[in-house]
Amino acid sequence: MSMASEFVRGRACIRIDARLPEGHVLLCTGRGSDHSFLVRRLGLSVECPDCGQVALSVHLVADFYQRGLDALALSVPDR
Questions:
Q1: DSSP 4-24
Q2: Fewer C-beta within 10 Å: the chain N or C terminus?
Q3: Residue 51: how many other CB atoms lie within 10 Å
Q4: pTM (2 d.p.)
Q5: Which residues of 9-47 are buried (b: 16+ CB within 10 A; e: fewer)?
Q6: For position 46, what pLDDT does the model report?
């Protein structure tokens, strides 16, 4: 299964957890354990130094901002 189809199906193993002045904090759930790592700059792809899982940066950024928009939509009261 391709990386893109895994991401679309919600099976992405790596997510951007936070943005800091030092870089991006990434959370990886690959190989059955949760671990995080810091990346100074996002390249075309990111590889987890612990388990070797790979994710495309464009998907990571899109997911990060989409989760922010979803949280914002939940906080707006219905009219």
A1: HHHHHTT--SEEEEEEETTEE
A2: C
A3: 15
A4: 0.72
A5: eeebbbbbeeeeeeebebebbbeeeeeebebeebeeebe
A6: 95
